[in-house]
């Protein structure tokens, strides 16, 4: 692992101006991803996990925009790049895998056309070499008979095979960073297992840094090295996956784990987090989670939302769970 | 305990052929998709029977046949001894229909956006000319919402609250059986827990029977008493919950359990299952699972296995023991 992380996000803020005020779908988020590492980003819908991924790759839809903070790709700032400079970076340095493999491929072009287009654009090779590389890319992601399938159209592939094509497309220009936004959500369990195994293998063999956005804690547990838990646009907890999932420090993470039905639990009642995530336009004062938190105290309602630094960079909570629970951090 | 629902050699074939003229010009044969093939099981009163399977396994089609939204091609479904598809006594059909209700997957698509919640919930009773005064308010409180919500429209509610409204509507006619087709797969985990707990509570309070359709093994394990595993329209294994999870017999069930992501399996290296679900229009000969099965023998490609009983488990496999 090199010292410079492949991706370094520093105090990122994304804002959407609306008639009713400014919304912050991503609020002061910082994390690093190193080469060969998979960072899982979890959270419920509206937590800002996809928005963070889109901000990194420069795909924010207007009027959403980055208002402060930095995004560094291998040490180089990329958050202020525009137009052509950004386009050259996308695909070459960063690849993106979206949730729905059907809508992220062009139905009118063959799979081969789409792959060679990307390769020609970024790698400066001949048409013939590009085609050979495209075939190799399809073989690498496990598409049988790649040489004969390369001239097929996306609709001729099954869902799982299509997602493999999308992964091949994201990886064909040999990027350093891949952002996978819910890559297995639209797939069946058995195909999901294949895709997760593929992502892990590619990450290990190629040393690609992967940001894996998902809401499935099981997928995170199996694939990720570290995990970032998001709530209402902020990082609630960040740490090695085993520690975060087995010994959560933030009450939200702990609640999320307890409300997931585990095979060992049987028919017992699930612990539920009361209420629902607040809307961005209507965030409570203090910690955004306090109205749903079992441990909320006066400080949580009063003081502005804590950051990760309040608990050793691990959890954004005034009263983190765990050993030193009784002590108020920073008091 | 008696069987409340009896599904007997149920088969449903859909005609997915091109239009007649295309078939003539392009010389295409008729294309028939067998969504459900010779499925039999029974659901006991006040129990939760779960159907699991991947896409195309026919689980939703079975649900629709059970509530009478789709007629079977062959075989029969008997609810409280009445076969909805063939029963001629209108009064008996009416009575059974009121006893069986359905909850759908997408709470955004299954509520009419132009109706007030009160009208949505009371509709199953109003349609039969019943007395709906105070009904919606009572049901809203029963599912954990407020009686004041009756005057609101569906868009004013979150996904979890909408699913509660769907449950309230399903309860309006005082049913015995609720068919739940992926009731929580559109919801976030914390909200899913709320809805699952509500469903468990209602089952105890009202003595409901659930046919629970899901692809999520952890949810099924949490909810079900008895589980049927479907593959390509065929029931491959059926067993009480603990028996199935402790000792899966069918190689497909095992594959499914191995492939499912587990929260306690950090960095687990899975050997992912090979291949994909075959095309239901041209299913493999013999046992539908044989091309992907690690245990397949010659006989599997020739002969479709019959359901056999091994202890508490029913399994359709030549090799399983």
From TrEMBL, chain A:
Entry superkingdom: Bacteria
Subcellular location field: Cell inner membrane
GO molecular function per UniProt: ATP binding; ATP hydrolysis activity
Domain ABC transporter residues, every copy: 7-257
Record Pfam families: ABC_tran, oligo_HPY
UniProt keyword terms in alphabetical order: ATP-binding, Cell membrane, Membrane, Nucleotide-binding, Transport
InterPro entries for this protein: AAA+_ATPase (IPR003593), ABC_Ni/Peptide_Import (IPR050388), ABC_transporter-like_ATP-bd (IPR003439), ABC_transporter-like_CS (IPR017871), Oligopep_ABC_C (IPR013563), P-loop_NTPase (IPR027417)
GO biological process, any: transmembrane transport
Membrane topology: Peripheral membrane protein
Single GO cellular component term: plasma membrane
Keyword Membrane: yes
Family the UniProt entry places it in: Belongs to the ABC transporter superfamily.
Record's protein name: Peptide/nickel transport system ATP-binding protein
Organism: Lutimaribacter pacificus
UniProtKB/TrEMBL annotation, chain B:
Top-level taxon of the source organism: Bacteria
Gene3D superfamilies listed in its UniProt record: P-loop containing nucleotide triphosphate hydrolases
Annotated GO biological process: peptide transport; transmembrane transport
Location relative to the cell: Cell inner membrane
Domain spans labelled ABC transporter: 11-257
Topology class, membrane: Peripheral membrane protein
Signal peptide: none
Keywords of the record: ATP-binding, Nucleotide-binding, Transport
Keyword ATP-binding included in the entry's annotation: yes
Stored SMART domains: AAA (SM00382)
GO molecular function: ATP binding; ATP hydrolysis activity
Presence of keyword Protein biosynthesis: no
PANTHER family: D,D-DIPEPTIDE TRANSPORT ATP-BINDING PROTEIN DDPF-RELATED, TRANSPORT ATP-BINDING PROTEIN
NCBIfam families referenced in this protein's UniProt entry, alphabetically: oligo_HPY
Family, similarity comment: Belongs to the ABC transporter superfamily.
Protein name: Peptide/nickel transport system ATP-binding protein
Protein species of origin: Lutimaribacter pacificus
């Amino acid at each position: 692992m090199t010292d410079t992380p492949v991706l370094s996000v520093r105090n990122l803020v994304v804002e959407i101006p609306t008639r009713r005020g400014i919304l912050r779908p991503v609020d002061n988020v910082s994390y690093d991803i190193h080469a060969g590492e998979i960072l899982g980003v979890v959270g419920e819908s509206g937590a800002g996990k996809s928005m963070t991924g889109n901000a990194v790759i420069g795909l924010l839809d207007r009027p959403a925009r980055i208002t402060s903070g930095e995004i560094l790709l291998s040490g180089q700032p990329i958050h202020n790049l525009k137009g052509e400079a950004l386009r050259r970076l996308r695909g070459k340095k960063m690849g993106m895998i979206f949730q729905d493999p059907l809508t992220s491929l062009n139905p009118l072009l063959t799979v081969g056309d789409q792959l060679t287009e990307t390769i020609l654009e970024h790698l400066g090779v001949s048409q013939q070499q590009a085609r050979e590389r495209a075939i190799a890319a399809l073989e690498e992601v496990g598409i049988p008979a790649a040489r004969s399938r390369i001239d097929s159209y996306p609709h001729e592939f099954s869902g799982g095979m299509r997602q493999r094509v999308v992964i091949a497309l994201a990886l064909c220009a040999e990027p350093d960073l891949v952002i996978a936004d819910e890559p297995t959500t639209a797939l069946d369990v058995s195909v999901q297992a294949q895709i997760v195994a593929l992502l892990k293998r590619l990450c290990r063999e190629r040393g690609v840094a992967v940001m894996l956005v998902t809401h499935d804690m099981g997928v995170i547990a199996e694939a990720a090295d570290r995990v970032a838990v998001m709530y209402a646009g902020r990082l609630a907890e960040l740490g090695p996956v085993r520690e975060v999932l087995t010994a959560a420090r933030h009450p939200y993470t702990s609640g999320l784990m307890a409300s997931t039905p585990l095979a060992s639990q049987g028919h017992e009642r699930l612990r539920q987090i009361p209420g629902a995530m607040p809307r961005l336009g209507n965030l409570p004062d203090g910690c955004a989670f306090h109205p749903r938190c079992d441990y909320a105290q006066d400080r949580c309602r009063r003081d502005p939302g804590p950051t990760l630094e309040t608990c050793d960079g691990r959890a954004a909570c005034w009263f983190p769970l765990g050993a030193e629970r009784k002590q108020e951090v920073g008091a | 305990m008696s069987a409340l629902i009896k599904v007997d050699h149920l088969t449903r074939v859909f005609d997915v052929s091109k239009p007649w003229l295309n078939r003539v010009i392009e010389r295409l044969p008729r294309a028939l998709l067998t969504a459900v093939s010779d499925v039999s099981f029974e659901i006991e009163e006040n129990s939760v029977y779960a159907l699991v399977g991947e896409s195309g396994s026919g689980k939703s089609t079975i649900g629709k046949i059970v509530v009478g939204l789709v007629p079977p091609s062959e075989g029969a479904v008997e609810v409280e001894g009445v076969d909805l598809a063939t029963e001629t006594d209108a009064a008996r059909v009416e009575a059974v229909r009121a006893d069986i209700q359905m909850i759908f997957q997408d709470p955004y698509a299954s509520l009419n956006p132009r109706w007030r919640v009160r009208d949505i919930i009371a509709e199953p009773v109003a349609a039969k000319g019943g007395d709906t005064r105070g009904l919606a308010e009572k049901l809203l409180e029963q599912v954990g919402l407020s009686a004041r919500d009756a005057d609101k429209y569906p868009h004013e509610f979150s996904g979890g609250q909408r699913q509660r409204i769907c449950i309230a509507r399903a309860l309006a006619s005082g049913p015995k059986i609720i068919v739940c087709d992926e009731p929580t797969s559109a919801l976030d985990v914390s909200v899913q827990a709320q809805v699952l707990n509500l469903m468990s509570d209602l089952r105890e309070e009202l003595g409901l029977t659930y046919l629970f359709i899901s692809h999520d093994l952890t949810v099924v394990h949490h909810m079900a008493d008895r589980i049927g595993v479907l593959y390509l329209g065929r029931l491959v294994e059926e067993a009480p919950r603990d028996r199935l999870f402790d000792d899966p017999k069918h190689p497909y069930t095992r594959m499914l359990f191995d492939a499912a992501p587990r929260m306690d399996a950090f960095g687990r290296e899975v050997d992912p299952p090979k291949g994909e679900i075959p095309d239901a229009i041209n299913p493999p000969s013999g046992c539908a699972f044989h091309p992907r099965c690690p245990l397949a023998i010659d006989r599997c490609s020739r002969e479709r296995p019959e359901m056999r009983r091994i202890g508490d488990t029913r399994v359709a496999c030549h090799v399983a023991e």
